[in-house]
Amino acid sequence: MGRLICAVSLLLAATVAPALAHTGAGSVSGFSAGLHHPLGGLDHLLAMVAVGILAAQLGGRALWAVPAAFVGMMLVGGLAAMAGIGLPLVELGIVGSVVILGAVIALGRRLPLAGAVALAGVLAVFHGHAHGLEMPAAASGLAYAAGFALATAGLHAAGIGLGLATRRLGEGVGRAVMRIGGAGVAAAGVALLGM
Length: 195
Known about the structure:
By secondary structure, the chain is an all-alpha fold. The protein is 76% helix and 0% strand. It has one domain.
């Protein structure tokens, strides 16, 4: 698992280009644009890594179910945007997801699996909608969606890796580190709300 997380992280790091993930910042299309988009904004990065941390915090089936729910519903949101279906308060939903996910991690309460899956799915629609809205005009929707889904899965894997790594610190210390990290994510989300 550790090697897989390292490999995905290296792949993502190798493909990051400065400020090309958002519209108007360069000539990127298709798969590459989709791959770069989730990596281009702190709000997306924090939320997607936090989903992985939450999954690790819950353990068991949540390790795959929570990230899968996020990626699946993110694709739904992205396809809705590509089809011209509007969604109100997208930016607020994205930044709000950072605050909510960080707070859930910081509180350290065990959500039931169904609740965690539902939470991840609802929040993912906002991220997906933003990705879909920012698809370059010349890009293939399928290739673009595959790119942002892969990048998101990689960020989830990184979050899972961080969450599982905290367990090696011992139960008490690991739990404290995870909760402090969650509080940091929530605080960053509050700061992003003010921008």
